[in-house]
Amino acid sequence: MYVGGLKISNITDAEKIIYMDNAATTFTRQEVVDEMMKYFNILYGNPSSVYEFAGKSRDAVEKARKTIAETLHAKSSEIYFTSGGTESDNWALRAVAKAYKNKGKHIITSKIEHHAVLNTAKNLEDLGFKISYIDVDEYGVIKLQRLKEAITDETILISVMTANNEVGTIQPIDEIGRIAKAHNILFHTDAVQYYSQMPMDVRKSNISLLSASAHKFNGPKGVGFLYINEGLHMVPLIFGGGQEKGLRGGTYNVPSIVGMAKAAQIAHVNMKNKINTELQSREYFIKRVLREIPYTRLNGARQNRLPGNINFSFQFVQASELLALLDMEGVCASGGSACASGDSAPSHVLTAMGLEEELAYSAVRFSISEHTTRQEIDYVVDCLKRIIADKRRDNELIQYYSDRGRGRRR
Ligand code: PLP
Bridge partners of 367? Predict the structure, then answer.
């Protein structure tokens, strides 16, 4: 079987899928799996134990910490391993709230954050914190003037994602970092979609805390990290043993930590090529769709977006129906964060960008990778043309007959 142009053995061609949902998760690279294997059943010692055998696991964890720190221009001592992006986001917001509440109880974030941030912020509101949710423009870029105006003497943290998971819009984090520094406020960025896709420098961007997750960059699921600037006063989210300087209890997930570092290392070596390849594929895909499928809108910024992200609204078609039909053709894609089930609320991201409800319900995200081939894109565009034309015809007929029925009843 081929997935995103990669040959996967042991599965028949009949099960061929075209995977365009890399923002949801990515496959774990074979080199990463190979690197992880020996830490399951050969060097399986607990890094916290005292004997030499465990020291080998400890060394592997520390080497991984150094590898990751280097990708961010950070120090090893500033990297803390977690179970993924959700935990890192929770930890960043809750810990700052707890540790700095005597300075103030106000946090600024944006309306288009991932729910790992938004629901944590909501919980902090219940605990008496005031949260300002800053507007974004029609492309999903945070309104910097509004952000500046929201700052008060009570503000302790600004949390704005590096790039959005639905529309791929990249935020002006250098500018936000400068604003935060000028006001002596901490700056957290959820870089789950951005880290290891594009270069980052925590010092240059004045980032105090940064969340990342391995499964978004060809590493294993269930592992991530939080970068915490060394000057911060930090408190634990997870209480337990003395791991991570007593700030994050729990036995080290050695294979996954090693795998995450290997994935980050490969991603940073290949980054330029990957970006270029994805950009070419993205532009080809966008051009074909906008030219060949009428009543289609590209959501998000035209240039300042993640190289692999494409988000279209196909007017007069429900994303949930379209995704189900694409699935039948072997194509994996996603709707807005909450719209896949059809009857739930439209995406909070698209709504914040000012999209009408109908367009928000018709939004589909394709997140490609450097392995996505031209043939795959052509296949998906051909499927889209056929399915969308059929659906629009059906929907028109339904509309026609329901209007006639209504006319007769009048
Ligand atoms: N933040 C963003 C922007 C994400 O896209 C995701 C996952 O999709 C998360 C946080 C949560 O990360 P994890 O799946 O590692 O918990």
Answer: 21, 309
C-alpha of residue 10 to centroid of ligand 1, in Å:
30
What distance in angstroms lies between residue 188's CA and the mean position of ligand 1's atoms? 15
Q: Which residue ranges form the domains of the chain, and what is each CATH number? A: 2-22+271-404 (3.90.1150.10), 30-269 (3.40.640.10)
Clarify whether 332 is annotated catalytic.
no
- Among 214, 174, 234, which residue's Cα sits nearest to residue 26? 214
Residue pLDDT, tens place only, 244-271: 999 999 999 999 999 999 999 999 999 9
Q: Which positions ≥6 away from 228 have C-beta within 8 Å?
A: 78, 80, 208, 209, 234
Number of other residues whose CB lies within 10 A of the CB of residue 126? 7
How is 352-367 classified by DSSP, letter by letter?
HTT--HHHHHTEEEEE
pLDDT digits (tens, 9 = 90+) for 181-211: 999 999 999 999 999 999 999 999 999 999 9
The span from the CA of 11 to the CA of 8, in Å, is: 7
Q: How far apart are CA 211 and CA 193, in angstroms?
A: 10
Do 202 and 73 form a contact (C-beta atoms < 8 A)?
Answer: yes
Mutate to test the pocket of ligand 1, among 114, 118, 365 (most ligand atoms within 8 A of CB): 114
Say how many Å lie between the CA of residue 152 and the centre of ligand 1: 29
Residue whose Cα lies nearest atom 13 of ligand 1: it is 85
pTM: 0.94
What are the Cα distances from residue 212, in Å, to 72, 87, 127, 189, 194? 11, 10, 26, 9, 8
Say if ligand 1 is within 6 A of residue 213 CB: yes
- Is residue 212 classed as helix, strand or coil in its secondary structure? strand
The dihedrals phi and psi of 11, each to the nearest 5 degrees, come to: -125, 140
Is the CB of 268 inside a 6 Å radius of any atom of ligand 1? Answer: no
